[in-house]
């Protein structure tokens, strides 16, 4: 097959690798897909991988069932490819990041609307890869992580469903020898948005399994729903060599609900590490109650067991929380947000949310509510009813730095925003000013100068609030607007 060709594969079971021989060109993809609605199965334990896109560009893979193989699919030195509407199940090879969907030195690829089930190691890995889109996929059950980003930049994970009965959800950290790659402070500006993290497994006497175990830099985590995780929804981690740089991240408008640990856990390391300038805004935490699944630690067994812990802080530096809503039917409590020292308790008494608002410089406008008024929390519909106190209760993400008008806007902090990262088909954020009904789309961002280039002109005053497009008078709190 050559550029512009489509190869239709008829129904059957194939015990050989699909290895694409030729690349397409821009606008003229080489396409391999099933014929109409016929079922095409690629299978065989010796296939490592079953589909190989190594060193190929502008190829489409669509409509295949890959099952009971050694490894699923390789994107090695692969660029500008599309893999969509496939079903991958039962990868048996314990090959770390190589056993599932493996991106390595890969860029501008799109992995869309696929189903991944049952992997012997990591289901999807982006290693030393950039500007890839992973969207609309459903990923279930991996022996290690459902997905990871390692020393990769400008990747997007959006609108995916994650459920893991075996271990954790996702990981973000640097490379310390993975695939013979060592890069540190090198996992920057990845966007993780609008995903559902539905379950993580019980770790037993190990560090609790998180929705995301995160140690990246300058990333955006927004509009995600974390619920029913046995460990924390989001663990901001520091450990080893691969997770020593956790800084400059923007975590906003997420929901953390029903964890058996805490919604968010901020860690420190006895060996040091870089943890600074991590900002949290408009997040909603509730429904979590501490379960001492890891029974090694007296503080967890005797003090925290059964407490309504929503936010677990091992440190008092490197972060700021602003407009965080805590859902508690029993009112304020010293255990909704706790200070600890890893698995040991602090010497000082815990504070209520009201006391943290008054005393803690890194904690601003913590909100106590009895009822978020979700539409149907029993069925995990965490959208807000029209009478929710969280509507219009959020803060703006940043402010303009000077008065002006036109298509270039300087703001105080551009790190909250996304411009598409040059990924095919992607668009930048739509933004809206405080008190204005007009919106504009971001075309590009100069993060060094905090300058946003817009698709149409706006006018603004100094210190005017800037957020993503919103309804009403201000942004809402939580994962939905």
TrEMBL record:
<dbReference type="InterPro" id="IPR011050">
    <property type="entry name" value="Pectin_lyase_fold/virulence"/>
</dbReference>
<dbReference type="InterPro" id="IPR039448">
    <property type="entry name" value="Beta_helix"/>
</dbReference>
<dbReference type="InterPro" id="IPR006626">
    <property type="entry name" value="PbH1"/>
</dbReference>
<dbReference type="GO" id="GO:0005576">
    <property type="term" value="C:extracellular region"/>
</dbReference>
<keyword id="KW-0732">Signal</keyword>
<dbReference type="GO" id="GO:0016837">
    <property type="term" value="F:carbon-oxygen lyase activity, acting on polysaccharides"/>
</dbReference>
<dbReference type="Pfam" id="PF13229">
    <property type="entry name" value="Beta_helix"/>
</dbReference>
<dbReference type="InterPro" id="IPR022441">
    <property type="entry name" value="Para_beta_helix_rpt-2"/>
</dbReference>
<protein>
    <submittedName>
        <fullName>Parallel beta-helix repeat (Two copies)</fullName>
    </submittedName>
</protein>
<dbReference type="InterPro" id="IPR012334">
    <property type="entry name" value="Pectin_lyas_fold"/>
</dbReference>
<feature type="domain" description="Right handed beta helix">
    <location>
        <begin position="99"/>
        <end position="235"/>
    </location>
</feature>
<keyword id="KW-0964">Secreted</keyword>
<dbReference type="InterPro" id="IPR052052">
    <property type="entry name" value="Polysaccharide_Lyase_9"/>
</dbReference>
């Amino acid at each position: 097959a050559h550029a512009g060709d489509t190869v239709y594969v008829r129904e059957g079971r194939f015990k050989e690798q699909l290895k694409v021989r030729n690349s397409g060109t821009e606008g003229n993809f080489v396409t391999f897909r099933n014929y109409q609605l016929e079922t095409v199965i690629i299978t065989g334990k010796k296939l490592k991988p079953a589909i190989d896109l190594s060193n190929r560009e502008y190829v489409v893979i669509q409509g295949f069932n890959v099952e009971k193989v050694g490894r699923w699919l390789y994107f090695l030195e692969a660029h500008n490819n599309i893999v969509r509407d496939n079903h991958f199940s039962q990868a048996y090879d314990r090959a770390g990041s190589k056993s599932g969907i493996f991106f390595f030195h890969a860029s501008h690829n799109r992995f869309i609307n696929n189903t991944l089930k049952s992997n012997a190691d990591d289901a999807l890995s982006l290693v030393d890869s950039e500007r890839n889109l992973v969207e609309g996929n459903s990923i279930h059950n991996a022996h290690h992580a459902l997905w990871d980003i390692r020393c990769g930049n400008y990747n997007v994970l959006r609108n995916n469903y994650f459920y893991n009965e075996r271990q954790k959800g996702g990981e973000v950290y640097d490379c310390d020898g993975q695939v013979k790659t060592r890069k540190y402070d090198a996992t920057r500006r990845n966007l993780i948005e609008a995903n559902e993290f539905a379950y993580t497994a019980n770790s037993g006497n190990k560090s609790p399994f998180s929705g995301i175990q995160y140690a990246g830099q300058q990333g955006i985590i927004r509009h995600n729903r974390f619920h029913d995780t046995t460990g924390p929804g989001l663990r901001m981690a520091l450990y080893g060599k691969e997770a020593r740089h956790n800084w400059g991240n923007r975590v906003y408008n997420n929901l953390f609900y029903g964890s058996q640990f805490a919604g968010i856990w901020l860690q420190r390391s006895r060996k040091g590490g870089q943890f600074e300038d991590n900002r949290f805004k408009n997040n909603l935490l509730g429904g979590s109650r501490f379960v001492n699944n890891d029974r090694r630690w007296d503080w967890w067994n005797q003090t925290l067991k059964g407490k309504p812990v929503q936010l677990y802080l091992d440190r008092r530096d490197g972060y700021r929380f602003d407009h965080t809503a805590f859902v508690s039917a029993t009112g304020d409590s010293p255990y909704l947000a706790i200070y600890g020292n890893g698995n040991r308790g602090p010497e000082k008494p815990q504070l209520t949310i009201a006391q943290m608002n008054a005393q803690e410089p890194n904690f601003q406008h913590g909100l106590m509510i009895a009822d978020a008024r979700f539409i149907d929390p029993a069925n995990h519909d965490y959208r807000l009813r029209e009478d929710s106190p969280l509507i219009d209760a959020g803060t703006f993400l940043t402010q303009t730095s000077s008065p002006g008008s036109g298509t270039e806007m300087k703001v105080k902090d551009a790190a909250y925003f996304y411009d598409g990262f040059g990924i095919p088909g992607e668009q930048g954020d739509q933004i809206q000013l405080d008190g204005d009904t007009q919106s504009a789309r971001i075309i590009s961002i100069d993060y060094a100068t905090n300058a946003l280039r817009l698709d149409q002109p706006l006018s603004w005053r100094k210190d005017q609030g800037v957020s993503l497009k919103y309804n009403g008078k201000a942004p809402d709190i939580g994962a939905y607007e």
